[in-house]
Design a protein that fits this description.
This protein is an alpha+beta fold. The chain contains four helices and 14 strands. It has two domains: about 35-125, no CATH class; about 145-265, no CATH class.
Length: about 260
């Protein structure tokens, strides 16, 4: 190969490499990123005020679109084992308006992003579970139905916000300390009078302690029933869990007493 040809090849390779680098950097810059420091704290307070969980259990993102004025809070599934007691499904959404982060909405499906004014680029960047165009306003009798991410904790107490309601949760806590929970739930019939799911029961054997015990995983089935209104939303008010021995079946219904609400047996 002559010198001029070699020189041309070197120039072509250099230009190509530079183009690829610019493309990679542009793609990286366009992606949502982890919110940090004061921005993270402000988004948490706005988007998930009712979630009392350690920061390691929360994934807080801020968009690179629309001036970085949108953020989300969701459960950090990478830390599921240590965070099961705080597990929740769905995402809380916040928007920065005139320098202040404000709550927009939360949910795990069919969020009316268009009606809420969330730009299309932001929806894609933050991977929001938006409703299909035209489905943001459900017809009468077709309102979304919610449930709770943990059946062992207080749902509502005087002066306290309600436990986060979710749609089609993939994880449900069964013990308040996180030592027993359901995971990988797959639902059928959600939105009808009874919703059913198959999943995995993940429990500690408690030896030598709940935190250090061996994990026992078995198939499990859960049924939610009796949908009704609760604090402005339609929720499934009863559940029934079926698991093989040595675990014990569980059941409960939403019950209130002196301002305290829980899913009592």
């Amino acid at each position: 190969m002559c010198d001029s040809a070699r020189s041309w090849v070197r120039v072509w390779r250099a230009v190509t490499s530079a183009s690829i680098l610019v493309l990679v950097l542009a793609t990286t810059a366009a992606a949502s990123r982890l919110a940090r420091d004061g921005t993270r704290t402000a988004i948490e307070r706005a988007a998930a005020p009712a979630v009392d969980a350690p920061q390691r259990c929360l994934l807080v993102l801020v968009t690179s679109k629309d001036g970085g004025n949108w953020g989300t809070v969701s459960f950090n599934e990478h830390n599921l084992r240590s965070c099961a007691r705080w597990a929740f499904d769905g995402v809380g959404i916040a928007q920065r308006v005139r320098g202040r982060w404000e709550n927009v909405t939360s949910g795990s499906a069919d969020i009316p992003c268009g009606r809420l004014g969330i730009p299309v680029a932001v929806r894609s960047d933050l991977r929001l579970p938006c409703a299909v165009t035209g489905s943001g306003n459900p017809r009468p009798g077709h309102q979304p139905i919610y449930f709770f991410s943990n059946v062992a904790t207080i749902i509502k107490a005087p002066g306290q916000p309600v436990q986060t309601e979710v749609i089609r949760p993939s994880t449900i806590g069964l013990f308040a300390d996180g030592s027993w929970y359901l995971e990988k739930l797959r639902w059928t019939g959600w939105g009808s009078k009874a919703a059913h799911a198959n999943g995995i029961s993940n429990a500690s054997n408690g030896i030598p302690s709940q935190a250090q015990g061996k994990r026992i995983k078995t198939p499990a089935q859960i049924t939610l029933s009796r949908p009704g209104r609760f604090l402005g939303r339609t929720v499934y008010r009863c559940y029934k869990l079926t698991v093989p021995p040595p675990a014990t079946d569980l059941h409960g219904c939403l019950t209130g007493h002196n301002g305290y609400w829980s899913l009592l047996p």
